[in-house]
Structure formats: structure tokens, C-alpha cells
Amino acid sequence: MSGERWDLLIRRARLATMAGDGYGALDDAALAVRDGRIAWLGPDRELPASATAAEEFAADGRWVTPGLIDCHTHLVYAGNRANEFEMRLTGATYADIARAGGGIVSTVKATRAASEQTLYAQAAPRLCALLAEGVTTIEIKSGYGLAMETEAKMLRVARRLGREFAVDVRTTFLGAHALPPEFAGRPDDYIDAVCAHMLPAIAAEGLADAVDAFCDNIGFTPAQTRRVFEAARALRLPVKLHAEQLSDQGGAQLAAEFGALSCDHLEYVSEAGVVAMARAGTVAVLLPGAFYFLRETRVPPVDLLRRHGVAMAIATDCNPGSSPITSLLACLNMACTLFRLTPAEALAGATRHAAGALGLADRGILENGRRADLALWNIGHPAELAYHLGYNPLSRVIRQGSPRASGVALLPHESEQ
Ligand code: DI6
Ligand code: FE
To answer: Is 286 a residue whose pLDDT tops 70?
Structure first.
């Protein structure tokens, strides 16, 4: 029998496979790729002698992890809210600013006024910052248009970013993010519009992979959220929820009832909410950047989530109001320092469990048959990915089996090889 013929073979690597608990570490390992998928991995000395590869390189002991996955972002928006940052530092709260007509609605004004090209041009550098840290899959939400055409505009920009940059973009329709000014005092009428017009049209254009809502005292009620979820279900779109960020609304139970992929934030979730998520297999997406930036004091109940076996993901929540952060590695650090995750939990949260939060079974773990989305790091131990703050040890990225170059202007490490 003739030997295997691979497209790419990486030798003398250390793998953090992220399979099972911990890092799933494999020392002195090799990993082979064929047709964009992992075709073989194991101890270097067990490589089949007859196997050949079109391209081969030695990782020289560098660590290989799954490509990072940022599973919760609002990356596409116009303008910024540095003025509100200043206001909050002199006493105003996030909720005060939102109630006074600032907050999300001020970004809505800027985003509505921006052309598609402007939105693209403002989002692209943020995306580049994330890609430079080894992100290979990113979720991007709408939610700053809050009208049919402007929500579609945001999602088209997100899709375009996915075409023009070497990254997989998953889009989420977040029409129920805030009440647009023209519906002031009429939230149920706005939810009618979301369910009857906006969502069906967005779905018909293929612009959304999932549907999200903001269920909170400054967002929408559980009853309104339920209607959005029913509309999503009718269109066979999976749901996720901004749940219990500022108060406990029972959003986690509601989302679990709809088999939600994830509940995100969760600072105020109750044990009943955690139990419901565990039963439904809903991932808890923790967003330490928003907790940090809003100077919150109530941490999500990490011990409860662990005890009930709820998978925890970590994401940037990149947005102009509560988390203007474009570093997933910084969020891994904050997940450990602020929420007391272990570095292994944090890394699993940006790989395998982030994949789960997006319903993507084909990535997030190094294993035969999974996508060959890989990040190579100049580190001595994978805990360093959560340990450093403001330092980027990325060496190179392989996406679907190919070295990443196209569309990414700033991969300084690419030339090293
Ligand atoms: N919670 C958040 O953290 C973001 N959206 C949400 O519902 C913040 C969005 C913003 O302030 O612009
Ligand atoms: Fe968010």
C-alpha cells in the first residue's frame, strides 16, 4: 500500500489539542493536514515512515493550539464613545447614560449615518488586531442599525470582512439590542417589526447565522425576547442571548428553553438559570472585558457553572460602549484575574467552547477530521497565553491548512518562516 500524501506536515511541535480537560498536551508531536483538515496527529516518532507531504516545516518546539475563536463581538459600528467613558469616570453609570438617550442609541445614530464603505473601513483595523493574535473565526453581531436596511448594512459589512480577510465570520442578527428612538414608548411595536419584517428579510438574504437579543432592565423583557426567539425558531435559526448582565431576568431559563447555543455575560444568573443551561447544553460566554470596562463588581458564578458542568467560553464583546477591546488574549488574562478561571479553562474558552457557542462542531480542538485552523506560538507553556498582558507571542497562523497571508497586511511573523 502506498504511503499517505499530505499537503502540510508540521514536525517537532508541542500541541495543546484542547481535547478533554486541561490542554490535552502532546509533546514532541507532528500534525499533518490534507484538504484543509487535520489528517494525522501524534508523537513525532510514530509518524508513518511512508508518509510524504508537499510542504513540511519544523515548529522547533513551539506550541500549536487551535486557531482562536472570538465568539461574541459587535465589531462593526461607526464612531466611538470615549465621551461616555469620561462621563462614567465622573460618576454616571452605563445605565444612566443609556436612559438619557446616549449609550447604544448614540452608536446607532453614527452607524445609521455611515456608508457601508465607512463601516467597513472602521471595522477592518479592529479585525486586523484580533487576527494578529491568532483569531481564525469571529462572530459579528448587528444591533446598531435597528431598522431593516441599516441592520442589513451592518451584516453585509460583516460578510464582506469574511470574504476579504482570512477569517471565518459568523453573523448574528441582534435587532432586539435597544429601542430605536422612533419607537420610543412602543417597545412591543418594535418587537413586532423585528419579528414580522426585519428578521424574515435578513434571513431571506442569508445574512444571519443566528439570532440574539438583549434581555435586561435597559433592554427587552423576557416576554419580548420570547417573541424574537419564536420568530427565529420559525426560520430555523439558532438563538443566543445577552442574559443577566445587569440584573436577573430569568433570561437564561428562557434561552435554554429554546435550546440556545449560548447565554452571554451572566453576572446575575441564578442557580436555576445555570441548571437550565446545563440541561440544554447551552454554553456560558463570559465577557470579562465588559465587566472590567464598566467597573462591575458582581462576577459571574463560575463555581456554579463548573459544578453543573456548563461549558464556559471567553470572548471580547468588542463594542464601543462596554468593551472597546480588540485583544482576545487580554480577555483570557482578565478571565483568570477577574473571574478566577484557570489558564487552561480560559484557553478552552477561546477554542473548543467558543466553537460550541457558535454551533461549530468542526473546529476548536486539534483532532483528526477537524479544520486545520492552527495558531503557532513562541511560548514555553500554554498558560502563557493567559499570563501575558499586552504582549503577543503569535508566531504564525495556518488557516484551513494554508499559511495565512492573503488579506492580512500585518502578520509580521509570517516572514520568519
Ligand atoms: N451588552 C453589551 O455589553 C453590549 N450590548 C449589550 O447588550 C454593549 C453595547 C454598547 O454599549 O454599545
Ligand atoms: Fe455584547
So the answer is: yes
